[in-house]
Amino acid sequence: MNMVDAKRVLETALICAQQPLSVKALGELFSDAIGADTVKTLLGELQTEWVGRGVELVSVSSGWRFQSRPEMREYLDRLHPEKPPKYTRATLETLAIIAYRQPVTRGDMEDIRGVTISSLLIKQLEDRGWVEVIGHREAPGRPALYATTKQFLDDLGLASLDQLPLLESPERGEDSMAGLGALLGAAGESLSAEAIGVTGANGQQMAMPLQAALDEIDNGIQT
């Protein structure tokens, strides 16, 4: 198979995929006859070819995917006017703490926020697929250690935790919302619309501008 045809196969698979595809998975399209380095090269070429279109090819934690560009969100929302799920300020602060201080226990989070954290709050983040228990601390009661998931990175368009923006003082509870705002602005100042419950007609995830994403979440904060 020549490289032009191979690129078409990659493009088709990525457009039709419901989830990001890893380089390894994409290599299976060719029965591993094309190496990983070649697949990466072709993916880079595809990225360039889609520049200037309404859809872009991006690399996230779980692999590669096509998503709409942020400036398309205004129009795509007209097809899907559903309201985003509402998250309390406490939920967003807790998510920011886990993202920046992981792995952390519930006690760690409570020390940072200065208040008791409801089990239902953490369960909401677990059900959303954004946090998970990755172990237990060797301390009395062996408290669970929480960390963010690949789904969390995918929804925010990040390839790894290294892409999280730096905070001046992430230990301070009052910085949590500011930290979350910076977090949502990572990876090209876009947030996958899947992260707030909006999906395109073809099942593909869509991106939204940073300010729009923050507005959506701010509107959902229950005081």
Describe this structure in words.
There is one protein chain. The protein is α+β, with helices and mostly antiparallel strands. It folds into two domains: 3-49; 89-220, Arc Repressor Mutant, subunit A (Orthogonal Bundle). The protein is 43% helix and 13% strand. It is built from eleven helices and six strands. It has helices spanning 3-16, 23-27, 36-49, 73-76, 89-101, 106-113, 119-127, 150-155, 176-184, 186-189, 210-220; strands at residues 55-60, 63-68, 131-136, 144-148, 190-192, 207-209. Strands 1-2 form a two-stranded antiparallel sheet. A two-stranded antiparallel ribbon has the order 3-4. Helix 5 (89-101) crosses helix 7 (119-127). The longest helix has 14 residues, at 3-16. The radius of gyration is 19 Å and the shape is globular. The model is unreliable at 169-179 and 181-223 (pLDDT under 50).
Descriptors:
single chain; 223 residues; Arc Repressor Mutant, subunit A; 11 helices; 13% strand; globular
Give a quick rundown of the structure.
The protein has 223 residues and is α+β, with helices and mostly antiparallel strands.
What's the SSE blueprint?
Blueprint: H1 3-16, H2 23-27, H3 36-49, E1 55-60, E2 63-68, H4 73-76, H5 89-101, H6 106-113, H7 119-127, E3 131-136, E4 144-148, H8 150-155, H9 176-184, H10 186-189, E5 190-192, E6 207-209, H11 210-220
Q: What's the oligomerization state?
A: single chain
Rg, rounded, reads 19 Å
Number of domains: 2
CATH homologous superfamily identity of the largest domain: Winged helix-like DNA-binding domain superfamily/Winged helix DNA-binding domain
- Outline the low-pLDDT stretches: 169-179, 181-223
N-end to C-end Cα span? 59 Å
Strand order of the largest sheet: 1-2
CATH architecture name of the largest domain: Orthogonal Bundle
Structural class by SSE content: alpha+beta
Overall geometry = globular
How many strands, which pairing sense, and closed or not: the largest β-sheet? Answer: 2 strands, antiparallel
Q: How much of the residues is beta strand, in percent?
A: 5-15%
What is the number of helical segments per DSSP (H or I, 4+ residues)?
Answer: 11
Q: Report helical residue fraction.
A: 40-55%
What's the CATH first level of the largest domain?
Mainly Alpha
Total strands: 6
